[in-house]
């Protein structure tokens, strides 16, 4: 559950950039592979004051990719794609995005030369050259130690690989390109042993008193968690966030950490209930 004051996020923080993630791969939709890139992307963008507003997981399909990427590009400041840029027949992301924006593919000779330099043990065959066939025109953002670049198309579509460790390394290296430290959201967390049904009215009262902030309420997910509900407060004004957190903590008998809550109350959630977190 999440709640906020009457203003929209855009009205509260008009300078914040928005982002969408397009996660591509049949293996994600049939359960063979678990997506971890979305969580990494969301957390890193959050630190840069960028709000990830939408995540879509779609198959390796030309029409699906083209429809999704054009729609998301029109609505978001940044679109990040993950997956489908390898050397095999199911890797069609570059071509699908090129088609979506009416572009042709062109072999990028600099990327091929980087392949030779960084991975001299590998033959540069036709399959590997496919990984350097990019929509033209595009911008390339390199990462130290890797030959594969982030490929930027249509000024705001950023194409990344699906392999988590490569995705993470490339995004982290280029994170300065997205958002700003100055617009990073401030946040605070309050843990409580009360239940959502018991604290809902108090949460609403505090949210109404701080209309420029976003509030969230999340029941514990594991039986041995040291709390019943985690409450979050987010906003651009750090002092306002801290004031709201103090008011909310007092209202729900909360604490800033599960350990502090346990030390103060002598309780470890309500272990007699399964699931224990909500009403």
Automatic annotation (TrEMBL):
Family annotation (CDD domains): cinA
Pfam families, A to Z: FLAD1_M, MoCF_biosynth
InterPro entries on file: CinA, FLAD1_M, MoaB/Mog-like_dom_sf, MoaB/Mog_dom
Domain MoaB/Mog span(s) in chain numbering: 20-182
PANTHER family: NICOTINAMIDE-NUCLEOTIDE AMIDOHYDROLASE PNCC, NMN AMIDOHYDROLASE-LIKE PROTEIN YFAY
Protein name: MoaB/Mog domain-containing protein
Organism name: Porphyridium purpureum
The organism's taxonomic lineage, starting at the top: Eukaryota, Rhodophyta, Bangiophyceae, Porphyridiales, Porphyridiaceae
């Amino acid at each position: 559950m999440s709640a906020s004051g009457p203003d929209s996020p855009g009205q509260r923080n008009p300078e914040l950039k928005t982002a969408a993630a397009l996660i591509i791969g049949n293996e994600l939709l049939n359960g063979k592979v678990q997506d971890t890139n979305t969580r990494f992307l969301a957390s890193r963008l959050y630190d840069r004051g960028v709000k990830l507003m939408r995540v879509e997981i779609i198959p390796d399909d030309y029409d699906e990719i083209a429809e999704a990427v054009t729609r998301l590009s029109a609505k978001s400041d940044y679109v990040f794609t993950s997956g489908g840029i390898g050397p095999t027949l199911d890797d069609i992301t570059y071509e699908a995005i090129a088609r979506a924006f009416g572009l042709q593919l062109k072999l990028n000779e600099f990327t091929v030369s980087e392949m030779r330099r960084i991975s001299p043990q590998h033959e540069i065959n036709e399959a590997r050259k496919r990984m350097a066939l990019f929509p033209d025109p595009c911008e390339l953002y390199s990462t130290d130690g890797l030959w594969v670049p982030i490929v930027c198309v249509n000024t705001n579509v950023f194409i990344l690989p699906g392999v988590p460790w490569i995705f993470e390394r490339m995004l982290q290296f280029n994170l300065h390109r997205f958002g700003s430290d100055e617009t990073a959201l401030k946040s605070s967390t309050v843990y409580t042993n009360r239940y959502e049904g018991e604290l809902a009215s108090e949460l609403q009262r505090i949210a109404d008193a701080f209309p420029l902030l976003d509030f969230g309420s999340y029941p514990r997910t594991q039986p041995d968690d040291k709390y019943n509900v985690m409450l979050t407060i987010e906003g651009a004004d750090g002092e306002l966030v801290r004031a709201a957190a103090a008011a909310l903590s007092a209202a729900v008998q909360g604490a800033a950490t599960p350990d502090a809550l346990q030390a103060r109350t002598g309780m470890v959630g309500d272990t007699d209930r399964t699931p224990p977190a909500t009403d």
